[in-house]
Structures are given as structure tokens and as C-alpha cells.
Amino acid sequence: MNPSDNHNPNTVDAAVEEIIAELTLAERVAAADLNENELRVLELTMGKLIRYNLDQKDVAVNKELMRDCLAKSGESLNEVDAATVILKEVWKRLRGSHKLRVLK
User: Fold this and answer.
1) N or C: which end of the chain has fewer CB within 10 A?
2) Any idea what DSSP says for residue 3?
3) What are phi and psi of 24, to 5 degrees?
4) What is the C-alpha separation between 39 and 59, in angstroms, rounded?
């Protein structure tokens, strides 16, 4: 979700895929190793970028993305809450694919 790109993900899944594609392997692993309470760290950085991008999007695309965030969360949202929904989805996906595991 680089502000200079013309990508306009209109679903949470599309936004998550775009964010993950832009992360380095080290960033993916670090994010996957956070526990749910530590997600605040991501909200201070990535969350701010997501909110910025939400403000810059075409109004129709933004409404579609917000509607999808609402469907995922099941409660009313503002752009801060929508960014949190997207970040949690990034985190969940990374925990499934990039979590460090102890090998025996």
C-alpha cells in the first residue's frame, strides 16, 4: 500500500496481499512472532500508513474496502478501526505462514 502506487485494493484480502507482498522476509517473521497484545506496535507504523492510504483512495474504492472491513469485524468502524481490521488479518495470515517454530 505504497502511497505512490496506483493500487486500489477494494477488499481486506486484496489489501492484506498487497501489504504482505511489500514486507521483507524479516518483517514478515517479526510480525508473525508478535502476540495479539503486541499488535499495537504495528498500529503505530503500518496502521498509520494504511489510514493515510484510506484517505487517499478513490471514494468508491474506499467505501468498498470499508464495507469489507465492516463485514469482517461485524461492528461499526471508522478508518482507525478499519486499519486495525486489516492489520489483524495481515498478522493472522503471517502467523500461519511465517511463524518461527522450534524443530526437534
Assistant:
1) C
2) T
3) -75, 165
4) 28
Q: Is residue 63 part of a domain?
A: yes
Determine, yes or no, domain membership for 103: no
Q: How many domains does one find in the chain?
A: 1
Averaged pLDDT score across all residues of the chain: 82
Cell of 65: 474496502
Task: Give the predicted TM-score (pTM) of the model.
Answer: 0.77
Q: Which residues contact 51 (CB under 8 A, 6 or more apart)?
A: 79, 80, 83
Q: Has residue 7 been placed in a domain?
A: no
5 in a domain, yes or no? no
User: To the nearest 10°, the Cα dihedral for 39, 41, 46, 51?
Assistant: 80
pLDDT at 10: 86
The span from the CA of 40 to the CA of 74, in Å, is: 21
Query: Which DSSP symbol is given to 75?
Result: S
Domain of residue 16, residue span: 12-97
